[in-house]
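Example with several molecule types.
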Amino acid sequence: MKAFQRPNELPRSRLYSLVPCEVGTLWTECFTSYLNRLGWTHHVSPRAMVVQEVVPYLAKSQEISGTTYRWIGALSRGSAMNVNGAGSLALEWLEVLGQLTQRSDLHLLTLSGWIGNLSSVGHLRTCPTWCPICYAEWQEHELCIYQPLLWLFKVVTICPKHHRLLENHCPHCQKQQSVIALSTRPGHCTQCDRWLGSSHDGEPPSQMTEELSSWQRWVVQVLEELRVASGTGALQWECFFTHLGQGMTRATVTWDQLERFTGIKKHVLLPWFDLSKTPSLETILKLCYVCEVTPLQVMKGEITSLVEVLQRGRPSQPPIHRHARPTVDLDRCRELIYAVLDGREKPMSQNQLCKVLGCGHHKLQHFFPEERTSIIQKAREYRKQQDRQRIAKTHEQVRQAVFSLHAQGIYPSLHKVQSFLLAGVMLQPEARETWHAILRELGIES
Ligand SMILES: [Zn+2]
Ligand SMILES: [Zn+2]
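Resulting structure tokens for the full complex:
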């Protein structure tokens, strides 16, 4: 097995010491955005750069995948997003990148520089989101185009600057974005390479309720408060849970009362206090929002107002439930469905459509019953057509490979033919059928 070099054996400053964007501010760049920009600065595919320059130095690459090549797929989706987190994976990447770039500030691009020692799971999205207006403005002013860490928090759903929902599907190909790009340029779709910025906001007002807007304003203020506090020393969340428990005792509030007050189930709340399970940042923020305190106030033991609010027994604002999330936007659904049916957009399966629209099958069936049937039919025909094209292409490739070998006087064995083609092609039954047919045609096989 290949011996993995540890960071202390790394060549020093093997990569450019690229300066991260807006480091030390609310708009701090995230670590994976930095990795992408580092690749582009070196004029190479960010994913190839990571696989060649970073992965070989990670001890975990052995444990996780057994081979570095498996990382290539993992880098496009969720597991790569953990590199922005506060767990051991992120720490290892930071150590390696810190040495390769000779930078000491890269920890500020991950959650460890923001939320301290809160358990690292469940705070970040699995795919990147973006604000098209931010991208368009940065391009217009010739500023760096990057992804702020703020956009990756699950709890942040709108752009704090433009008060519009963050996007998570490309408007052109409807696909989600890779975390570490294979190629493409900043601000361009990692799947279809088209520009993701837009200078005008086509979002219907129904998407943005006053409730969502005020919740999100508060969320961003609180995250900024946590980030600034993290700068003076890592946050210790044990104090938060201890002080919250003390607040409940002083207000003589029972678990059932806290459940009714916050809208968070007792069985979710209870494990927080013996630290057997730490909650997601989103749940902590929902609790604090309705209790009219910030997590930092509770952490510091400033709980007088918390006690008063709990004693009042009735929150002045309703708990943040799922209805505070954007509801299904029927106009957007209709527009996309008809674009698919008219052929302006590529056919997509019912699952893909629901994912893009953020609704379930039952909602699609309820609002667009006939269109749903046509969409499914169209996707089925499209799949069949793609299968036919794939088979025809395989047929042609096998044919060319066999004829080429035969002309050189080499026996066109399965193995030899396979060496001309993409891995695994000759495992397909139709490829083998073609191979036999051509051997018969050439009189090699009877
Ligand atoms: Zn924006
Ligand atoms: Zn796209």
